[in-house]
Design goal:
Strand order of the largest sheet: 2-1-6
Structural class: alpha+beta
Family: Belongs to the HypA/HybF family.
Number of strands: 6
Helix content: 25-40%
InterPro entries: HypA/HybF
Order of helices and strands: HEHEEEEE
Shape: elongated
Protein name: Hydrogenase maturation factor HypA
Keywords: Metal-binding, Nickel, Zinc
Strand content: 25-35%
Radius of gyration: 16 Å
Function: Involved in the maturation of [NiFe] hydrogenases. Required for nickel insertion into the metal center of the hydrogenase.
Amino acid sequence: MHELSIAEGIAGEVRDRAAGRPVRRVTVRVGALHAVQPDALRFGFQLAAAGIELVIEHRPATVLCRACGRESELPDQILLCSCGSADVAVTGGRELEIVTMELA
């Protein structure tokens, strides 16, 4: 369960940035290519940062096809364009970032 280590990293960063001030809510943006299960991340975050609400913004994986020029959203983690080409550049879905922190 890699979500627990991700949750611990987020909680550590939140503690550092809050500098002792109480935190009410944290919003994170997670791209589909990280294969994070939202419920597992929330559970791990509650273990690492009890009492802080975690809001998760999911970002789909997107690619730009070098063969046909189309930018498309991927239905899964297989890096293929809908035209069948594997010659793609990932343009979204790798995000893993803290977006906001709401202090109490």
